[in-house]
Specification:
The complex is a heterodimer of chains A (446) and B (477). Chain A is of the alpha+beta class. Chain A is built from ten helices and 20 strands. In chain A, the strands form four sheets. In chain A, strands 1, 2, 3, 4, 5, 6 and 7 form a seven-stranded antiparallel sheet that branches. In chain A, strand 5 and strand 6 form a beta hairpin. In chain A, helix 1 packs across helix 2 and helix 4 packs parallel to helix 5. The longest helix of chain A has 18 residues. The radius of gyration of chain A is 24 Å and the shape is globular. Chain B is an alpha+beta fold and 477 residues long. Helices cover 21% and strands 39% of the residues of chain B. Chain B is built from eleven helices and 24 strands. In chain B, helix 2 packs parallel to helix 3 and helix 4 packs parallel to helix 6. The longest helix of chain B is centred in the N-terminal third of the chain and has 18 residues. Classes of the chains: A alpha+beta (446), B alpha+beta (477). Chains A and B meet through strand 2, strand 3, helix 2, strand 4 and strand 6 of A and strand 1, strand 2, strand 3, helix 4 and strand 5 of B.
């Protein structure tokens, strides 16, 4: 066992000695670095490390939780005692308990890269500088910048419980982002591009990040506001993944068992177009949603959520699985303490065969959404409404930028009316989607 | 209060000499300014779901952040260990932002002024747990008793107590003890076997536990959440397009937060990336609009005795009779813009660099009778409850999401409508304000503002407001 695993196991042991029937302890230890540059000067440098521990105890079927950043013997004791004390005021919950079966995914998930830890500060600053310089020189209309940044994180996640599980894994990540501002004829617009990876070698070049960010900002200049109408809507991967995040909430066991999801009671039913296959997979090497075990010590796995439009599985932790009479899918997620919620592994829409250009070319008119702001999805009803910006499609081509409009519909209907999934699936975060086309939504403008 | 009587001296034996040493270390490679932010945060929360208390959590985090400013540059490091070696190490890391001979730290500290906006002998989380459990149980019972169509209730209670100490290389020393408490209730209701609808309510502030016993009770929040869910059972699709929008008093003040508040934060204006940059003195709203950001209102969620850089908070006029008056400043921007501090430097925790942020943002009351405002609208929408909002600082486009609204037809409220997003442009939207009610109300105390990943508690408020033209993002085109 590592030192941190020993601390976690000893906290669990102390809870059992204190009268708990079960206990689980999480430890998170991490270091962060961030360099920010703006207008070709260093703007900020930040570097630090911190850690925390959390415990959840079960006294019978009452649970109590606490957390601390004090890792002294006394600090850990106080944390355990506080949780035991809190378990006295909660209610008996017949569904509360630890997982029946703990374990870990066996393969090498490539979550940690020594090269990220070895990156030197001057190099990281130079990357941010290069990304911003690339954006500023990409087009004369790029006149200002909200800056560029390079970030890196190293972390260790530890979990132990009274079912004799003790495990830990290290992870690394780094990322580079640029946010240029373009202006022309009194119109000013910003956009961004970023790259992130668990490995230092996995990043896109600084030149590309800056250039793409600049192209995106420039193409937004002098936007129009279209008339209120119903029209087809294409979501590029960056906005499609936000939409998919709303669907995650609807397939999450926490919403389903409370009847707070429009997908409650729909298992096995056709809920979407045949184009739509959605998978959650926590075992894809090198990705942000991967881990050997979830936050309850259950092995990560691949779960098909929607297969060709049919709802196959909800995503569950131990508690929500018991509430629904199902088995956990290894999707337990929590910060340091408290009962586990449900979180994604790598949650994605399977790619189709058409390129985004082909999908756009197929539309006589429609909206290509590049930004969603203030999106609201009601998981209970499926109602969806969001501020949007993007490009108007005319005769199969991106014709002109649009902004200050909203798009609205209902997630149930949008899934049914999903007409295309593009070939451009990329895993930039734990929720990922290719370009998608929804047959019709309400666009509100003037 | 001398340092020796402070929380951090008592618990961590921190002395003025220690503070001077850490600040000297921070300025050992030069720089214009350094500060230390010590934080000790204890929290507790309770959650009730399906009629039983499922969750109870307590915890403590503590640490110190060290910042060095050199011109426009900021160096930052932190430690979650308050031992002298660890703090000195963080100071040396932050010092790396400067390259030169050491700068001098002023010897001796002077305690800076501060308000006393939330005096209390015992903060909520220093009280017994039994009383707090009773609050969520009462909320659960009241929501279920409200209407037989209510079938799911989640009631939550959370509180915190934050001790902070700020010491600067200019010899400024401040302390604060910042309590916070909040209740929340979420209700699901359904008619026979129809689809469920949700209602949500909550509130609190820098208040003692008796606030929830005497002023805003669990029954009040439960009733409000249940009422909203029941109203939604009869709601029709929201309209789409530009129309007259009337905002009810209180929480709909999120309009100001998104439309003008963020755009007036000094960092964005110093960098010229805000749609409001360089527009002080210009007309950005109808003359009926005077917008204030005030961190000094007693017991409010967004209030602070001192900001997170140790400056006393104040009442800042952002827009006066439609004319832009000023920005919200933090230490860095006020230095660089040669502007007076406004007490607006805030951070989420010791792990974060402070930024200019809002506190409680509201519009002064006008002269119109709220009912008369609704009567004046032939066709439009009346919004009383909102979820969140967001703004694109650079273009000025902002959205905010209405969760409870009604159609206005011929001056009367007719049917409730389903949730919809409203979108407008910050420097333009308030020019269309044509009536302002005399009923200014602040929100219940639930606001959380996110900026560059940092979350801080805020408040908002407005009187009933008529906006002649705003885009409503419903589905009924």
């Amino acid at each position: 066992m590592t030192e941190l695993e020993k601390i976690a196991a000893s906290a669990v042991e102390r809870a059992l000695k204190g009268g708990a029937a079960g206990a689980e302890c999480t430890i998170s230890d991490g270091a962060e670095f961030e360099a920010g540059v703006r207008m070709r000067e260093v703007e900020s440098l930040k570097e630090a490390a911190s850690r925390g521990a959390g415990i959840r105890v079960l006294a019978g079927q009452r649970s109590g939780s606490s957390y601390t950043s004090d890792f002294s013997r006394d600090g850990i004791s106080k944390m355990v005692d506080a949780a035991l004390e809190l378990a006295k005021i909660t209610s008996e919950d017949p569904y509360a308990g630890l997982p029946e079966e703990c374990g870990r995914f066996d393969g090498d998930l490539k979550l940690y890269d020594d090269a990220v830890a070895a990156l030197e500060t001057p190099w990281k600053i130079a990357q941010a500088m290069a990304a911003e310089a690339s954006a500023l020189s990409a087009d004369p209309r790029v006149t200002n910048s909200k800056g560029a940044s390079f970030e890196s994180h190293l972390g260790t996640r530890v979990f132990a419980n009274s079912r004799d599980f003790a495990g830990s894994y290290r992870s690394s990540s780094c990322g580079l982002a640029a946010q240029p501002v373009a202006s022309q004829n009194g119109s000013t617009e910003r956009d961004y591009w970023y790259t992130s990876s668990r490995t230092a070698a996995g990043l896109e070049s600084a030149e590309l990040v800056g250039r793409k960010a600049a192209e995106r900002a420039v193409r937004r200049l002098n936007p129009r506001k279209v008339a209120t109408q119903r029209a087809p809507v294409i979501f590029e991967p960056r906005t499609a993944r936000m939409l998919l995040g709303e669907i995650f909430d609807a397939v999450s066991g926490s919403s389903v068992y409370r009847h707070a999801s429009f997908l409650t009671g729909k298992l096995g039913e056709k809920i979407a177009s045949e184009i739509l296959t959605v998978v959650d997979d926590g075992t894809l090497p090198g990705l942000f949603g991967s881990s050997p075990f979830d936050d309850e010590g259950v092995a990560s796995r691949r779960t098909v959520v929607i297969e060709r439009g049919v709802l196959k599985n909800y995503l569950l932790n131990t508690y929500t699985a018991r509430k629904l009479g199902l088995h956990t899918t290894g999707n337990a997620s929590r910060g340091l303490s408290g009962s586990a919620g449900v979180g994604p592994g790598n949650f994605y829409i399977e790619a189709g065969s058409e390129t985004p250009e082909q999908i756009i070319a197929g539309l006589p008119r429609g909206l290509y959404v590049t930004e969603l702001i203030g999106a609201t999805a009601n998981t209970v009803t499926g109602d969806y409404s969001s501020g949007a910006a993007g490009l108007w499609i005319e005769n199969g081509e991106l014709a002109y930028p649009v902004s200050e409009i909203t798009i609205a519909g209902n997630l149930q209907q949008m899934m049914t009316e999903l007409e295309r999934a593009g070939s451009d699936l990329e895993f930039r975060a734990s929720v990922a989607s290719p370009t998608i086309l929804v047959r019709e939504m309400t666009i509100s403008g003037h | 209060m001398p340092l020796s009587e402070s929380f951090f001296a008592a618990r961590f034996a921190l002395t003025e000499h220690d503070l001077e040493q850490y600040l000297s270390e921070a300025l050992s490679a030069g720089g214009d300014y350094a500060d230390l932010y010590f934080e000790y945060l204890s929290t507790s929360s309770l959650g009730m779901d399906e009629g039983i208390v499922k969750n109870a959590t307590e915890g403590v985090t503590l640490g110190v952040g060290v910042r060095v400013i050199a011109g426009e540059r900021t160096g930052y490091a932190y430690s979650d260990d308050l031992s002298p070696e660890k703090i000195r190490k963080a100071a040396r890391v932050a010092a790396c932002i400067a390259h030169g001979p050491a700068s001098i730290v002023k010897t001796g500290f002077e305690e800076a002024p501060r308000h006393n906006l939330y005096p209390m002998l015992h903060a909520p989380n220093e009280m017994g747990l039994a009383e707090r459990v009773e609050l969520v149980k009462r909320a659960d019972r009241a929501a279920r008793a409200y209407d037989r169509r209510v079938f799911q209730v989640q009631a939550g209670y959370a509180d915190s107590l934050r001790h902070v100490l700020v010491a600067t290389s200019e010899g400024r020393l401040t302390f604060d003890r910042q309590p916070m408490a909040r209740m929340s209730v979420t209700v699901l209701a359904r008619q026979a076997d129809g689809p469920p609808q949700e209602g949500h309510s909550g509130g609190g502030g820098r208040v003692m536990l008796d606030f929830f016993l005497n002023e805003k009770t669990p029954e009040y929040f439960a009733g409000e959440a249940a009422r909203q869910a029941i109203v939604q059972l009869g709601a029709v699709a929201a309209p789409a397009g530009e129309m007259t929008v009337v905002l009810g008093p209180g929480w709909p003040g999120i309009l100001l937060h998104e439309a003008v508040g963020h755009g007036l934060e000094a960092d964005f204006n110093r960098k010229g990336v805000s749609a409001f940059a360089g527009r002080v003195g210009e007309k950005v709203a109808s003359p009926l609009c005077t917008v204030i950001d005030d961190g000094t209102i007693g017991s409010r969620r967004g209030s602070l005795n001192v900001d997170d850089e140790g400056n006393v908070t104040q009442r800042n006029v952002l827009i006066e009779n439609g004319v832009l008056r000023g920005y919200l400043q933090d230490k860095l921007s006020s230095r660089l813009m040669r502007a007076a501090p406004t007490g607006s430097g805030r951070r989420e925790s010791y792990q974060q660099i402070p930024m200019p942020r809002m506190t409680n943002t509201y519009m002064l009351a006008g002269e119109s009778d709220p009912e008369e405002i609704i009567r004046s609208v032939p066709k439009g929408i009346y919004c009383t409850t909102f979820g969140g909002g967001q703004v694109d600082i650079t273009s000025g486009n902002f959205v905010f999401a209405a969760s409870e609204s009604y159609l206005i037809e011929n001056g009367h409220l007719t049917r409730p409508v389903r949730g919809a997003t409203l979108i407008g442009n910050g420097p333009e939207a308030l020019k269309y304000v044509s009536m302002v009610g005399k009923d200014l109300k602040l929100d219940e105390g639930v606001g959380v503002c996110a900026k560059e990943g940092q979350h801080v508690p805020v408040g908002v408020g407005i009187p009933t407001l008529k906006i002649d033209r705003l885009t409503v993002g419903g589905t009924a085109a």
